[in-house]
From TrEMBL:
<feature type="transmembrane region" description="Helical">
    <location>
        <begin position="118"/>
        <end position="140"/>
    </location>
</feature>
<feature type="domain" description="EamA">
    <location>
        <begin position="149"/>
        <end position="279"/>
    </location>
</feature>
<dbReference type="InterPro" id="IPR037185">
    <property type="entry name" value="EmrE-like"/>
</dbReference>
<feature type="transmembrane region" description="Helical">
    <location>
        <begin position="146"/>
        <end position="166"/>
    </location>
</feature>
<keyword id="KW-1133">Transmembrane helix</keyword>
<feature type="transmembrane region" description="Helical">
    <location>
        <begin position="262"/>
        <end position="280"/>
    </location>
</feature>
<feature type="transmembrane region" description="Helical">
    <location>
        <begin position="32"/>
        <end position="52"/>
    </location>
</feature>
<feature type="transmembrane region" description="Helical">
    <location>
        <begin position="64"/>
        <end position="84"/>
    </location>
</feature>
<feature type="transmembrane region" description="Helical">
    <location>
        <begin position="178"/>
        <end position="196"/>
    </location>
</feature>
<feature type="transmembrane region" description="Helical">
    <location>
        <begin position="238"/>
        <end position="256"/>
    </location>
</feature>
<keyword id="KW-0812">Transmembrane</keyword>
<dbReference type="GO" id="GO:0016020">
    <property type="term" value="C:membrane"/>
</dbReference>
<protein>
    <submittedName>
        <fullName>Drug/metabolite transporter (DMT)-like permease</fullName>
    </submittedName>
</protein>
<feature type="transmembrane region" description="Helical">
    <location>
        <begin position="7"/>
        <end position="26"/>
    </location>
</feature>
<feature type="transmembrane region" description="Helical">
    <location>
        <begin position="208"/>
        <end position="226"/>
    </location>
</feature>
<dbReference type="InterPro" id="IPR000620">
    <property type="entry name" value="EamA_dom"/>
</dbReference>
<keyword id="KW-0472">Membrane</keyword>
Length: 295
């Protein structure tokens, strides 16, 4: 059960790796407008389930703290991340924002039944180093003039890691509530768009397909898979493995001609993969021990 849930959680990481490709192909739509549309699309699978099985509507009746955590996690993270990109260079803001997998691994020590081992932290740090090689391939330059952006990036990392850890504490809450989180995030993003941005629509059918792909996968199904994974799987492994997202994203962009292959990608592959394997020691031991006992 735990292995299956961990693998389901990892599919969210795989879907997030397509975020950059779909975003690049979606045209010039401003971020909050894109977020509003994509989260609306992302709610469709959950709404379909509720229409087919109306009895599941009762599962949406949850305490206020569950709704506040979910909405703050999804909308809060994206609001802060977009704010960071508006107020700091993308490279530096991205590096700070990608502290969230490490924060999940370290913060997991506070969860009931979890023990933080040296290989969890080491694996997460290896993933962070791999991410550094990918994101900072053209160099970095932290400048105090962008303090607001860096602060927003750190808060976004703290917000997403906090949401993931708190979600684990709501393990009895059905993943159906993610539908409500997506709808609320879409509405709040629309409010931000109307107040802060100029509306720009996709110009081609291909751009609309990219927007639909964003809504169905990295800004849709991924959040359902992540919710189920962190509630029922190994959150420490998922935290360390999350560093695979920027690596896989770069590999996908390279495959489709949006980026050039380099030694940095190869070394990042070793760091991220090695870090994930190291952090997953507990899972491997659980698989080996029953096999040995069976002999």
């Amino acid at each position: 059960m735990k292995l299956r849930a961990t693998l389901i959680g990892f599919t969210a990481i795989l879907m997030w790796s397509f975020l950059a490709l779909f975003t690049s192909a979606s045209g010039r739509m401003p971020p909050f407008q894109l977020s509003a549309i994509c989260f609306a699309i992302g709610s469709i699978p959950g709404l379909a389930v509720l229409v087919v099985n109306p009895s599941r509507l009762a599962l949406l009746k949850q305490p206020a703290k569950v709704w506040l955590t979910g909405i703050a996690g999804l909308f809060g993270y994206h609001f802060l991340y977009f704010t960071a990109l508006r107020n700091a260079p993308a490279v530096e803001a991205g590096l700070v924002a990608y502290l969230w997998p490490l924060l999940i691994v370290v913060g997991s020590a506070l969860l009931p039944g979890e023990r933080l081992r040296w290989y969890h932290v080491t694996g997460a740090l290896a993933g962070l180093c791999g991410t550094f090689l990918i994101v900072a391939r053209n160099g970095i330059d932290f400048n105090g003039a962008y303090a607001v952006g860096y602060g927003a990036a750190f808060l976004s990392a703290f917000t997403w890691s906090g949401y993931s850890l708190l979600t684990r504490r709501f393990d009895a809450v059905s993943t159906d509530v993610v539908t409500g989180f997506c709808l609320a995030t879409s509405i709040l993003s629309l409010v931000c768009h109307l107040g802060l941005e100029t509306t720009i629509w996709p110009e081609t059918g291909f751009e609309w397909l990219a927007v639909a792909g964003l809504g169905l996968l990295p800004v849709g199904a991924a959040f359902y898979a992540w919710d189920y994974g962190v509630k029922n799987g190994d959150i420490q492994i998922l935290g360390a493995a999350s560093y695979a997202a920027p690596l896989l994203s770069t590999l996908i962009l390279t495959l489709f001609g949006f980026a050039e292959p380099s030694w940095r990608i190869a070394l990042a592959c070793l760091l991220v993969t090695g870090g994930a394997v190291l952090a997953a020691q507990d899972m491997f031991r659980r698989k080996i021990q029953p096999a040995v006992a069976a002999e």
